[in-house]
Amino acid sequence: MRRFRGSILALGVLLLVLGIAWWLDRSEAVPEVSPDTLFRFDKEDLVAFTIVRPDATIEIRRIDDRWTAVGRSWRPNRAMIRRVAHQLHDLDARANVIDDPEAPEVYGLGSDAIEVTLELRGGERLAFRVGDPNPTSVSYYVQVLSSDQAEIGRVYVVKKASMDYYRLDIQAFREDRIATFDAADAVSLVAQIDGGQIEAERTGPLTWQLHAPVEQEASRDKIRLMLGRISALRALAFEADAPGDLAPWGIGEDAPRIAITLGSGEVIAVRLGDMLPDTEPPQRYAYLEADDAVYVVKAGILESFRLSADELRNRVLLGKHAWDVVALQVTPPADEPLRLTKTSDDWRWPDGAVISGSTPERVAGRAAELKAIVFHEIAPGGFGPEFATVQLWFEDQLEATVRLGRRWEIEVPDAQEGIGGRTEGRQLARIDDRETIYEIDDGLAEVIEDLWREHGRKLERDADKRLDEVDPGN
After folding, report:
1. pTM confidence score
2. What sign for the dihedral angle of Cα 303, 308, 309, 312?
3. Average confidence score pLDDT of the chain
């Protein structure tokens, strides 16, 4: 036997290795019956759900196309509503545990279990109890109480993500975006801050008029920034509902107040109170009038409203783009106008010849997208000498005339110490019959000069071509 001992040991090791390999490589056993389907419904059909917990009952219901927290002053969290619908609309069991257990408390399904009822469009009701996590804490026990898909009374194991949120604090079901709206729906904005007032009114799809602190066209970008700060306002904490006296939070009569009116007539009004001590990021109290509730929000909201009249002024002079322009005409002083037209794929000279290069598009873009740097009631040093008049025709049948006046250069100091500054070109401009004189950069004048040079070279080529046709020998 001694002679074969080594061989026997080697054979044993080989069998052990083969056994381990088989164990690791074996296919997952396929159950004879697939996991039970618990619920199947269209997410859009969910119209209500009720969560009965030992500490509270939460009823969320869709009323007149708006989700409402029944019996509560606050609005329900739309993300949580979407989560309920998403997690339950196609829920399958991971495993079947037991039918009608004699001791449901073993699975956390006793008297202190959470009970959830869903109501669907059409009157169907689905219900279940939420128990404890399973021993591995990756699944939850549930007991189905009402479903046309699953066995009533049976205990199942389901994925953790479908059930764990029912145990969250009740505030998790409360909407934390306290003033959500679409900026396109806003028709007016009034902000009373630091003893001053900003009042703006929508005058068109893309235009606003400022009534305070001065009467002038308002910067659409600045108005949208202010509207965006309110619509994105989130509650970091829910401080008090129906507080009555707002003094404990520093929200008095002179507190900053921002009111936005929507096209529907709804007014979203927020008053801002004291800063909270030692918070990062800085936080302050906010009172939403429609909710009659005090929240804690990020403190930086007011910075977007502390703007001067000059900062609020509209600097976009025409509000168009190069692709809006279908024709343009540039007229130098005491000279013939140069008219260019755009076809579907290119720009053309007055004689119909295609213009190579991007210069016409650059002229159209510079003119259509003009922005003011400084506003003048009277032209400093006079408006002239005039440089050119640019006429633009747009796809929407509108047109505009830009008169370009005197040009000059300014020194712009470099922010980096020890390095010299640079020069920038400036020019005066007038738009249509507006009385205001605008100071702009001279980028439009520069591309107009390029256009004139290209047109001059074209005229020379045309003259040479005609000469060759008259006298081919020369």
Report:
1. 0.69
2. negative
3. 89
